[in-house]
Amino acid sequence: MTPSEIRLKGKRRLLVLSYEDGGAFELSAEYLRVHSPSAEVKGHGPGQERLQTGKENVAITAIEPVGHYAVRLVFDDGHDTGLYTWTYLRELGENQADNWQAYLDRLRAAGYARQKPE
Predict the structure, then answer these.
(1) Are 41 and 25 in contact (CB under 8 A)?
(2) Which one of 28, 43, 44, 82 has the fewest CB atoms closer than 10 angstroms to its CB?
(3) What's the pLDDT tens digit per position in 1-49?
(4) Sign for the pseudo-dihedral over CA of 79, 80, 82, 85
(5) Phi and psi of 75, rounded to 5°?
(6) Which residues constitute the domain of residue 21?
(7) Are 14 and 29 in contact (CB under 8 A)?
């Protein structure tokens, strides 16, 4: 489902998505960066995912449309290779709490002490 509105807020650290069915999500830049659909993050197959660390203060510098099915998010750490389809963005919004907790659990298991965002 295509969002009816996409905008940045909070010093480019929140992506706000609104849908005509009433759905709305605020996704942090950190959350989107660590869940990028790019090969850098997802790998090229199951089990090849790479844990992203040090993204607490990342910001989104641009939202670039890709056809009628996705956007490319450009982050201030130079990452810009993930294509966020409308379906994937909706899934990220609907599953945000579980995805975020799983990410925090992976960080903890890796011994990474997450910094508080600025």
Answers:
(1) no
(2) 44
(3) 899 999 999 899 999 999 999 999 999 999 999 999 998 898 887 878 8
(4) positive
(5) -105, 155
(6) 5-109
(7) yes
Q: What is the pLDDT of residues 79-103, one digit of tens each?
A: 999 999 999 999 999 999 999 999 9
Instruction: State pTM to two decimals.
Output: 0.94
Indicate the number of domains in the chain: 1
Buried b (16+ CB within 10 A) or exposed e, 96-108: beebbeebeeebe
CATH number of the domain enclosing 34: 3.30.2020.30
In a domain, 15, yes or no: yes
Q: Are 16 and 25 in contact (CB under 8 A)?
A: yes
Tokens of 46: 């199951």
